[in-house]
Amino acid sequence: MTAVPNTATSVPTVPLLINGEWVDSSATEFRNVVNPATQEVLARVPLATASEVAAAVGAAHRAFATWRHTPIGARLRVMLRFQALIREHSKRIAAILTAEQGKTLADAEGDIFRGLEVVEHACSIGTLQQGGFAENVAATVDTYTLQQPIGVCAGITPFNFPAMIPLWMFPMAIVCGNTFVLKPSEQDPLSTMELVKLALEAGVPPGVLNVVHGAKDVVDALCTHPDIKAVSFVGSTAVGTHVYNLANAHGKRVQSMMGAKNHAVVLPDAHKEQTLNALAGAGFGAAGQRCMATSVVVLVGAARDWVPDLVARAKTLKVGAGAEPGTDVGPVVSVAAKERILGLIAAGEREGATLVLDGRGVEVPGYPRGNFIGPTIFTDVKTDMSIYTEEIFGPVLVVIGVDTLDDAIALVNRNPFGNGTGVFTQSGAAARKFQSEIDVGQVGINIPIPVPVPYFSFTGSRGSKLGDLGPYGKQVVQFYTQTKTVTARWFDDATVNDGVNTTISLK
User: Fold this and answer.
1) For residue 390, which phi and psi values (nearest 5 degrees)?
2) Which CDD domains does the entry link to (predicted)?
3) Containing domain of residue 95, as a range?
4) 124 in the same domain as 65
């Protein structure tokens, strides 16, 4: 699969994938994939028609009848081949990802690798999808459970991780015996499509994995189609809430991972150099475009004196195009994203915060049109300011000082989001108190971005998540399967005829 050249514009058009075939969409509306460092148009993305979405779902529905009965061993061998292909092609796909999304090459490779870890875990499906068994729960009666696939599943993925998030979704859904319709971000689908191509090469049959592109109309079609049984979403709070409510109203399982305002609490006994490095990396890496980015630093007691050191550390980071060697902070994804971030920085100044490091107006030689914003730090931030209440999704850190650990815990717990938080300390007692009392789904101790490995599950909470079960890990096997309980009794000629039993007990 490659993007199909469009003779009218000479810009390639990204195809759909329906029933194993690459399809040129008949859409009349398109979006451009733009290199955020240069504004070069890399491709056009069609906003699929209603009939094309229906065809993709129909192909998945038909394929499920066969794929659900494919032996577990055959499914996991597809994943074994898939992970090998991802490893072989990761650097090539990382270059595509950097061109369309903007993150550094090293970060793009990390994006792919964290998704690859999920594919590797999918290879363990033989143990992950086991049911349970109890013999002789009553006389000659056994009870056991089956973990069966649920049907056609859909995934809606964001622009900031065009490799990792799709790999969170469709490999686990497919290896559990389901079929899948994926809608990547229309801003940067090229690297996603390369991974899809590798999945087909690995042996995913026609119709088991399908891809459509689009905006709200396509999202709504997936959320309401009667043949879709489950919807996975990662993205903004506004869209995620809409997806959850609409899909839930139409009887679907939904997991919706949404916005965040992640705090890092720094105690004065923390290892200073390691903590400053962690804060700068977690706050400004990927230009702050991570749902798990550290966006609020809470300095406790004497740690409030560390602000000049944090500013000095941020100033060492190089802003540039993601493909250039030595770049630490690449461009944000679009002109619109840059304008929004600049608007929030201006709002912070108007509302009385102190701008101690201003990343506006940064110039990158050779890239005059890039969407660049340098590391930016605010102090004297109040919790009613827009730079605190809104997810900035850019390279902006806000700093708040408090007197005690109790004050810090109360501050974090008052915030409506619950994706991730971290505490930096050398005190085991303080760390234990923090992990026990903090009301956030994912906690790091001297780790700023506590995204768990795939053997566990992503467990954001409160305003950052809707739905009971998170993506990947043990929880997602529950999400993508239906537990069926079977209670069985077998008779032979020696069985005593006890007559009619009108009670509800088994004896």
Assistant:
1) -100, 145
2) ALDH_F6_MMSDH
3) 16-258+473-486
4) yes
Measured at the CA of 210, the angle between CA 208 and CA 214, to 5 degrees, comes to 160
Shared domain check, 157 and 289: no
Claim to verify: residue 341 and residue 193 sit in the same structural domain: no
Residues 318 and 389 in one domain: yes
Residue range 70-82: average pLDDT? 97
* Tally of domains in the chain: 2
Of 123, 147, 151, nearest to 207 by C-alpha is 151
Token output for 176: 């559990």
Query: pLDDT category, 6, cuts 50, 70, 90?
Result: very low
Distance CA 435, CA 431 (A): 6
Residue 9 — very low, low, confident or very high, per pLDDT cuts 50/70/90? low
Contact 53, 214 (CB under 8 A): yes
Q: Which residues contact 359 (CB under 8 A, 6 or more apart)?
A: 319, 345, 373, 374, 375, 376, 395, 396
Give CA–CA dist 33/45, Å, rounded.
7
Is 52 in the same domain as 123? yes
Structure confidence at residue 457 as a pLDDT band (50, 70, 90): confident
Regarding pTM above 0.85, the answer is yes
The tokens describing 104, both together, are 């550094």
Joined together, the tokens standing for residue 505 give 């007990």
Do 266 and 254 share a structural domain? no
How far lies 293's CA from each of 281, 395, 397, in Å? Answer: 9, 9, 10
CATH at residue 429: 3.40.309.10
The yes-or-no verdict on residue 492 having pLDDT over 70 is yes
Catalytic residue among 123, 153, 176, 291: 291
Relative orientation angle of helices 307-315 and 272-284, to the nearest 10 degrees: 60
- At 384 the three-state DSSP class reads coil
Domain match, 342 and 213 both: no
Please list, in sequence order, all residues whose beta carbon lies within 8 angstroms of the beta carbon of residue 199, skipping any fewer than 6 positions away: 82, 170, 171, 209
If you search the block for the tokens 């900031």, which residue do you land on? 160
Query: Looking up tokens 């991570």, which residue turns up?
Result: 290
DSSP code of 236?
-
pLDDT digits (tens, 9 = 90+) for 302-315: 999 999 999 999 99
What confidence tier does 455 reach under pLDDT thresholds 50, 70, 90?
A: confident
Query: Is 291 known to be catalytic?
Result: yes
Contact 202, 82 (CB under 8 A): yes
Output the six-digit token pair for 493.
Answer: 């000629």
387 phi/psi in degrees, rounded to 5: -70, -15
Cα–Cα distance, 154 to 222 (Å, whole number): 7
Q: Which two tokens stand for residue 141?
A: 């009666």
DSSP E strand stretches across 77-165: 133-138, 141-149, 152-156
